[in-house]
């Protein structure tokens, strides 16, 4: 949809934009927030969707950008290296707020960003990136999934997701509300759409 058709953010869409930014800030800082664990979808080499749950680790509302962590040997890392298109789905059943956010993934491995995030990770959080075999590799039994501490931060990857579009849906007995926002050239524009 051409961005020209969108209404300016200073009108009735501004509270929606504010709500999205606020919810994502809380998801990044509060482990019990319902938006903490979005479903994150990439596209594989055959063009098929691949979705999984991930943890929101950080959020920069000025870009806006969501940060997640993964293992650089995982299929999702290879998928996003080949095609950075990514989509996240959040739902808060209490607030009845659903968000489908699309964006572009920037991958970090063995750089300043991964070093800083790794150093801030508690010891128990590092084990997820220290498996002896790559994530998804076949093993005979769960006990064969050994950890190899000598890897250090070698396979630890940070994915920064710059949001380009958001489809926000608020469910209510008084009438659902839905809006689509687009971030482009540092500006956010949006419009109400039919729920
Ligand atoms: C609550 C929860 C949180 C998870 N968080 C992450 C995460 O932040 N990063 C990650 O790589 N995998 C995470 N996982 C594991 C993935 O959902 C999934 O099993 C795995 O990453 C699949 O990888 P693939 O899609 O690359 O094959 C999480 C799983 C659960 C259940």
TrEMBL record:
<dbReference type="Pfam" id="PF12766">
    <property type="entry name" value="Pyridox_oxase_2"/>
</dbReference>
<protein>
    <submittedName>
        <fullName>Pyridoxamine 5'-phosphate oxidase family protein</fullName>
    </submittedName>
</protein>
<dbReference type="InterPro" id="IPR024624">
    <property type="entry name" value="Pyridox_Oxase_Alr4036_FMN-bd"/>
</dbReference>
<feature type="domain" description="Pyridoxamine 5'-phosphate oxidase Alr4036 family FMN-binding">
    <location>
        <begin position="23"/>
        <end position="108"/>
    </location>
</feature>
<dbReference type="InterPro" id="IPR012349">
    <property type="entry name" value="Split_barrel_FMN-bd"/>
</dbReference>
